[in-house]
Design goal:
alpha+beta; 3-stranded antiparallel β-sheet; 10 strands
Length: about 350
């Protein structure tokens, strides 16, 4: 599926009609059935594996783009191929070093950065972006690339954007509830990435997670960058990024949900690691979907923009080039091809190739 679909659905301007004459697009058209989009991820995994634990493991890949294995197409099983057969890379100084490297490269190329300068409005005249208005002044532009949440850009920065209602009707992806813990000891049994799966397996396989609430039995992800970057935590200590999947923000009672999730997470960790983790937490910071929404301007705190809970989700995800405004582009996790650092960088590469054509 990956070899067939990736050139079309991940690494090209999928929504550009002229690309449909390219060989990869023609190849996909002839072998569309091989993308397995008529089954859900869970149906495909349940058919492939006899052991319920393997079904559980491979169903978990739906969460990599904020979707449900009971609803997203089995096409997304290619994520498992990427992780298990190709493998993932870890930047030597952690994920933020990617941002820092891009920033330093941009400075070498004489890029001018104006930080802490919110854009108030994108000016469009005769179906072309002509500039932006900031809290300081108006800036003329030849073209514009927005790396923010596409729904925020459409709803707050643009007037009368075509297809605005369609974009706003799309189901948001999941969000996250994150606990940042400073731990005053080390856990040799843990690695860089750790997933503690829920225990009541059969119940959850038969019953999809309800919308807009936290699951009764959580799957806990623990990321410890100090396992690789030793300076990320004091000697003899560890920095834990503890995350559980959460719904986007619909105005839920997050204080109550955080308290319940915290006690569940602690209980799961204590059981699996035979410890009393609360006695080892010396610092804590918590991020809810409300915090994510406020800090990133993401609509409802959704991590990946729209969900992939439909066989048509790939086609409906917002393109990298604006409808009817050829010099307005979008990059990042809320547009084609999707969320996560690799796909965000893929969207940037797509836009990089298209900008030269519009100027």
């Amino acid at each position: 599926m990956y070899q067939l679909g990736a050139p079309v659905f991940l690494f090209s301007n999928f929504h550009k009609l002229s690309n449909f004459n390219a060989p990869p697009f023609k190849k996909v058209a002839l072998k569309l059935y091989k993308l397995d989009f008529l089954r859900t991820m869970h149906q495909a995994n349940r058919s492939a594996f006899r052991d319920a634990r393997l079904v559980q493991l491979f169903d978990h890949y739906a969460t990599y783009n904020g979707s449900s294995p009971y609803r997203c197409p089995a096409t997304l099983n290619m994520i498992a191929h990427l992780e298990n057969n190709i493998g993932a890379c870890f930047p030597e100084q952690g994920m933020y070093s990617i941002v820092d490297a891009l920033y330093r490269l941009a400075l070498k190329l004489k890029v001018e950065f104006r930080l802490d300068t919110p854009v108030k409005k994108i000016k469009v005249e005769e179906k072309r972006v002509t500039g932006v208005v900031t809290n300081q002044r108006a800036e003329p532009l030849d073209c514009l690339v927005s790396a923010g949440d596409v729904r925020y850009t459409i709803n707050h920065l643009l007037d009368n954007y075509p297809y605005k209602q369609i974009v706003n009707r799309m189901e948001p992806s999941s969000s996250a509830l994150i606990f940042y813990w400073g731990i005053n000891r080390t856990f040799p049994e843990l690695e860089l990435h750790n997933i503690l799966f829920f225990s009541r397996l059969q119940k959850r396989i038969q019953t999809p997670v309800p919308e807009k609430i936290l699951a009764d039995d959580l799957t806990v992800y623990i990321f410890i960058s100090s396992k690789i970057v030793k300076t990320d935590a004091p000697k003899g200590c560890e920095n834990w990024f503890v995350m559980v999947n959460a719904p986007a923000d619909y105005g839920q009672q997050w204080e109550e949900m955080v308290a319940r999730a915290s006690s569940q997470i602690v209980a799961i960790i204590n059981e699996r690691l035979s410890t009393d983790i609360a006695t080892h937490i010396v610092t804590e910071r918590i991020a809810t979907p409300v915090d994510i929404k406020r800090n990133t301007l993401s609509m409802q705190g959704a991590l990946y923009g729209s969900s992939s809970n439909s066989m048509f989700s790939t086609f409906l995800r917002h393109p990298n080039q604006a409808f009817g405004i050829p010099n307005l582009f979008f990059v990042g996790g809320t547009v084609h091809p999707g969320g996560g650092i690799p796909l965000c960088l893929a969207s940037a590469k797509i836009v990089d190739e298209e900008i030269a054509k519009c100027l």
